[in-house]
What does this fold into?
Amino acid sequence: MNIDIIISADDIKEKKILNKSVVVIDILRATSVIVTAINNGCKEVIPVLTVDEAVGIARKDRKKYMLGGERDAIKIKGFDFSNSPLEYNSDKVKDKTLIMTTTNGTRAIKASINAKHIIIAAMINAEAVAKKLINLNNDIVIVNSGTNGEFSIDDFICSGYIISILKKKREFHLSDIATTALYIYENNKDIKSFIRYANHYKKISKLGLYEDLEYCCQKDIIDSVPEYKDGSIH
Ligand code: MLT
It folds into this structure.
């Protein structure tokens, strides 16, 4: 079995992901939000590309649909939630359908539709994701959502962490980029010491969202492994 990495949502190519188990990562913060919401009883998350599309769906039934996401890391006008995972507690999301649009994360998920499986991962559910991937027994491509089409340290180190768990469970052939992610993680296991150099980490810090950063950098606090299938994430 092979493991490869794609470094941003803009770099996803059909031939790279076809028939593969794709793992989409945007630890700061889209996939951390999705994992948290599903773990707290959210019925489903529907990722969409534009604010207009999100509002159009939610308008049909404002009791059923909640709106969440960001533009430029800030809550969108008229939305119920920002992109802070801490807002998605069970009181607010239980049994609701969340319509979500973000700059990079939801884009990466939707661009992966030609994969065999699309698994949603973050630091907070990495161990559970690795277990699921072993069970799927398929070649793996880890999609880093990145930031505006560019490589991001935060998603890359999370990829390295997932690879380190997978390698303990069985043998894999790693692409050079997967080997590099593993190397970076193995040398920075206290991931925050490295993630703090990431531009998006600095941006979230500037906004004063320190609790989000603390939360998203925790390892393995959640066992849920959301999967995107037929337009929604469960
Ligand atoms: C995204 O999808 O671009 C991010 O999750 C941005 C953010 O931190 O809110």
